[in-house]
């Protein structure tokens, strides 16, 4: 009885916690991690990361190094591990892309770029379930994930942390929409927020499971 009363109070406190909650997060004991709260197994998700360069027109090349992108991948893995999505970084390296294909990224769209990859106009070695492209320019935004694709793009000089941009775009690929109220959240646009709610973690894990089921 005492336990039930305590639980009810905890739920009431969570429901009344105001602006930070925004009603988006299911009420529950706050000391439980998102993964435990949902009672779900972690899901592995292989991701490959490509540095887009042009050997024929180096001015179009990303200036990122392999070590830099590997470090971004390691931090992305940490951010998503808290939501029970175990990102496994596979291939990390440069790919040589035709200049006219790189130039299609003058707008944050990506479909022409991905179509060119599908048409084998350039090689995308060892693709993971999700692929990330690090490009000199991403159409004037920090990053984007074309709707319905398992790919994201990140510019060389985003206005927020690199790992934040990559993790946020992976969130979109895993079915998450923008958070509008709390700038501390990963899915708030244009900040360094990194937090994922238990509800977002559940949605993302289901999406990752779906991607992996389709990949088998
Ligand atoms: Zn976004």
Structure described in brief:
By secondary structure, the protein is of the alpha/beta class.
Can you walk through the features of this model?
This protein has a single domain (38-215), classed as Collagenase (Catalytic Domain) (3-Layer(aba) Sandwich), CATH 3.40.390. Residues 1-30 have low confidence and may be disordered. Helix 3 (66-81) crosses helix 6 (162-173). The protein starts with a helix and ends with a helix. Helices cover 36% and strands 17% of the residues. Strands 2-1-3-5-4 form a 5-stranded mixed sheet. By secondary structure, it is α/β, with parallel strands linked by helices. The chain has 7 helices and 5 strands. Bound molecules: zinc ion. Zinc ion (ZN) binds next to helix 6.
Quickly list its features.
5 strands; globular; disordered N terminus; 36% helix; 5-stranded mixed sheet; alpha/beta; single chain; 216 residues; binds zinc ion; Collagenase (Catalytic Domain)
